[in-house]
Specification:
binds adenosine monophosphate, four-stranded parallel β-sheet, 17 strands, alpha+beta
Length: 361
């Protein structure tokens, strides 16, 4: 495993696996610091290509292309958690990869992730591994209903999960998630969903942003509002859990940790080992955005402040909502971010807006 020996100077090159909007916003932030990005993605129409110094169109299992990519970059990062383990491991012996392979592997498997978090003494929903109908029935006997059945791998935006209520036939629930290895989770009756966006550098230094409150529609993030309507004690607890997780993972870069709030309790749901949609508000409401923070962290620069100067509501523009760009661009105090995607499919993340207001004491 290669580590970063010394800070990368301006002119250095960051490699990013994945070419979506997160890679695009990372490349824009890097460019401002004089750092070039080389995007590696299989899709010819990747939104990040237009703003990056270089790109490679190749599959994640094309090891010749990966070897050539590794030779052109000083550090590799990624914008999505489903980077194949073999790809990350292949790169990690050639060039520093941040966040590291161990953090990636933990976050890729909901079973390993929940076990790791619970092992830190941090509350998670009751859960059990499910491999077939017998283990699902045993898990339901222990955890009860309602519950949520989730595939261990490759779940996002509500995909690969189904709710089990008293009337649900367990066999039908297993069929719905494609009979894949899964975990059963007790249903958390939460008052709100929040997340913690934190960053950690190669020397172990950590910064943590304020806690956004997140609203989903059809399992897709719709808004993040800061400050969240939670007590200072709950916010502090959430931030402390985020710091504990990022340190225990020995992580380098920005992490997103999704959590449920139930009364005064904070329950961790999942880890995203990357910049996170619920951190997009930092682009306009903070001195240093999550994207710049990630580039600083992986390049060995001093971390920036996570201080927030404004209150903010971030709203995702999904599907054809970005067609209203003229009206949005005319709205005073609104910050518009469009991802340059050509086709607006329903639910597709096309852009986001940040609406700022003066920070309340
Ligand atoms: P996830 O894919 O784990 O992020 O879940 C997507 C969404 O499903 C979450 O943001 C919650 O709104 C809901 N959800 C997931 N797990 C649970 C749970 N154990 N209890 C209640 N709601 C859940």
């Amino acid at each position: 495993m290669t580590v970063l020996a010394s800070p990368l100077p301006p002119g250095a090159r960051v490699g990013i696996l994945g070419g979506g909007q997160l890679a695009r916003m990372l490349a824009l932030a890097a460019a401002r610091l004089g750092i070039d990005c080389h995007i590696y993605a299989p899709e010819a129409e990747s939104p990040a290509f237009a703003v990056a110094a270089a790109h490679t169109i190749a599959r994640y299992d094309d090891f010749d292309a990966l070897a050539a990519f590794a030779q052109t970059v000083d550090v590799v990062t990624y914008e999505f958690e489903n980077v194949p383990g073999a790809t990350a491991a292949f790169l990690a012996v050639r060039v520093p990869v941040a966040p590291g392979v161990a953090a990636l592997e933990t976050a890729q498997d909901r079973g390993a992730e929940k076990t790791f978090i619970a092992g830190l003494g941090i509350p998670v929903a009751p859960f059990a591994a499910v491999s077939d109908l017998a283990s699902l029935e045993a898990a339901l006997g222990r955890i009860g209903r309602p519950a949520v059945l989730k595939t261990r791998r490759f779940g996002y935006d509500g995909k690969g999960q189904t709710r089990i209520v008293p009337a649900t036939d367990p066999a039908a629930a297993l069929a719905e998630i494609g009979q894949q290895p899964a975990i059963l989770e007790g249903f958390v009756s939460f008052s709100c969903e929040v997340s913690v966006i934190a960053a950690r550098g190669w020397q172990g230094e950590v910064v943590v942003y304020d806690v956004p409150e997140n609203h989903h529609e059809d399992h897709i993030l719709k808004t993040s509002t800061v400050p969240a309507r939670i007590s200072p004690a709950v916010a502090e607890r959430a931030r402390a859990y985020g710091s504990q997780i990022i340190a225990a993972l020995g992580y380098v870069g920005v992490i997103g940790v999704e959590m449920f709030v139930a009364g005064e309790q904070v329950i961790v749901n999942e880890i995203a080992p990357r910049v996170h949609n619920s951190g997009h508000w930092t682009m306009d409401a903070c001195h240093v955005s999550q994207f710049e923070q990630h580039i600083r962290a992986i390049c060995g620069w001093p971390l920036g402040t996570a201080e927030r100067h404004s209150d903010v509501v971030m709203t995702n523009l999904l599907g054809d909502e970005a067609a209203h760009w003229q009206r949005l661009a005319a709205e005073p105090g609104l910050h518009l971010h469009l991802y340059g995607k050509r086709e607006a499919r329903p639910g597709r993340k096309m852009g986001h807006v940040n609406r700022l207001s003066p920070r309340q004491p």
